[in-house]
Design a protein that fits this description.
It comes from Fusobacterium ulcerans. It holds the Pfam family Lipoprotein_Ltp. InterPro entries: Ltp-like_HTH, WH-like_DNA-bd_sf. It is built from 7 helices and no strands. The chain is mainly alpha-helical. Helix 2 crosses helix 4, helix 3 packs antiparallel against helix 4 and helix 5 crosses helix 7. The termini are far apart.
Length: 129
C-alpha cells in the first residue's frame, strides 16, 4: 500500500511538474511567469509586434512589469511575428479600407504597430490584392 502511494505521488509530481527548487535550481520568478502569460495573450490573440508587445508589458499605462520580466516574456513567448504582421495588415485592409501603402506605413510606424520592415514586407507579400 505504501509503495502504491509513493508511486502515485511520484506520478503527480511528474505530471504537474516538480518545482525546480526540489532539484536545486532557481524557480522562475512569479512576475516573469505572469509577464509571459500576458505576452502570450497579446502576441497570439491581439497579434502585436515584438516591439509593441515589450512596450505594452512595461508601460505605466499597460501592464507595468519590470524591464527584466518583459525581456524574459518577449524572449520566451511563442509567436510568429510575420504572421502577426499579416493579421494586422488584413485587419487594416478589410476593416479600415486602407491602401497597401498606408497599411505598410502603419505596420512599420513607431506610432503604429512597430513591426520590422522584414515582417511588414512579408505581410504585404501575402496580403490579398
Amino acid at each position: 500500500m505504501k509503495k502504491k502511494i509513493l508511486i502515485g505521488i511520484a506520478a503527480v509530481i511528474i505530471v504537474l511538474g516538480a518545482p525546480s527548487t526540489m532539484f536545486g535550481e532557481d524557480a522562475t520568478p512569479a512576475e516573469y511567469v505572469a509577464a509571459l502569460g500576458k505576452a502570450t495573450l497579446y502576441a497570439n490573440q491581439m497579434h502585436m509586434s515584438k516591439k509593441a508587445l515589450h512596450e505594452q508589458l512595461i508601460s505605466e499605462f499597460g501592464e507595468q512589469f519590470t524591464e527584466e520580466a518583459a525581456d524574459y516574456a518577449v524572449e520566451k513567448v511563442k509567436a510568429n511575428w510575420k504572421e502577426n504582421a499579416l493579421s494586422k495588415a488584413k485587419m487594416y485592409q478589410k476593416e479600415m479600407n486602407m491602401s497597401r501603402k498606408a497599411v505598410y506605413d502603419q505596420l512599420i510606424s513607431e506610432y503604429g504597430e512597430n513591426f520590422t520592415k522584414e515582417e511588414a514586407d512579408y505581410a504585404l507579400e501575402h496580403l490579398p490584392k
